[in-house]
Structures are given as C-alpha cells and as structure tokens.
C-alpha cells in the first residue's frame, strides 16, 4: 500500500475492478479500500469508474459489490461516479474476450 497510496493521491481518475465473489467485491479490493481509510481526509475530487465481472447473469448479482464501491466513494470528498461496467455471465478463463464488455470498457476508457 505504501507504493499505491501516492498514486491514488496523484490520480485524477480511479478505476476499481473486481470479480464478484459471494455477491461482493474481492478481498484484495476490500483490503485496498480499508487501507485507504488512513488517507480519506486527503483523497479528494476523483472521477471514479467501476468494473465488475460475475459468472451469474442476474442483474442483482452485482448489487452488493457496487454498493461496496459506492460506499468507498461516499468517503471521498468531491468524488464523481462516471461509469460502471457489469460483466455478467463470464466465468471461464478468457470468456470475457468474446463478450461485449471489452468494447464497453474500451469506449468508457476513451472518455477518460
């Protein structure tokens, strides 16, 4: 986290991505959010994008994961959510490559 925090502080845009496990974000991303607590008072004015993938196709599958990401954003003064990608129905390695989500991510990235 010592190497990551200066990059978070310097960035104008943050993209958080996670596979959805048990309807929530990965433990690794949760650890990053938890470690950001020490700097919440100085992390400011970030444009935020979220990318999630899940094996299930149901819309509600990602509700809790998105709520976790939005909860982190609520702690960043002046943050703005500018995009969310819901990569549903992808489970096997490489399966995402043949999905429309790759193009969606590309298009979202062009707007950054």
Would you kindly provide a written description of the structure presented here, covering whatever features stand out?
The chain has 112 residues and is of the alpha/beta class. Helices cover 35% and strands 21% of the residues. The chain has four helices and three strands, in the order H-E-H-E-H-E-H. The chain has helices at residues 4-10, 27-36, 63-74, 101-110; strands at 13-19, 47-54, 80-88. Strands 1-2-3 form a three-stranded parallel beta sheet, with helices on both faces. Strand 2, helix 3 and strand 3 form a beta-alpha-beta unit. The two termini are 24 Å apart. The model has no long low-confidence stretch (mean pLDDT 94).
Strand fraction: 15-25%
Helix-strand pattern: HEHEHEH
Query: Count the helices. How many?
Result: 4
Structural class call reads: alpha/beta
Question: Radius of gyration, rounded?
Answer: 14 Å
Q: Note poorly predicted spans.
A: none
Largest sheet properties? 3 strands, parallel
- Percentage of residues in helical conformation: 25-40%
Strand order in the largest sheet: 1-2-3
Mean pLDDT: 94
Which of globular, elongated, flat, extended, rod-shaped describes the shape? globular
What is the rounded distance between the termini? 24 Å
Number of strands: 3
List keywords for this structure.
three-stranded parallel β-sheet; 4 helices; 112 residues; 35% helix; single chain; alpha/beta; globular
Short description:
By secondary structure, this protein is an alpha/beta fold. It has helices spanning 4-10, 27-36, 63-74, 101-110; strands at residues 13-19, 47-54, 80-88.
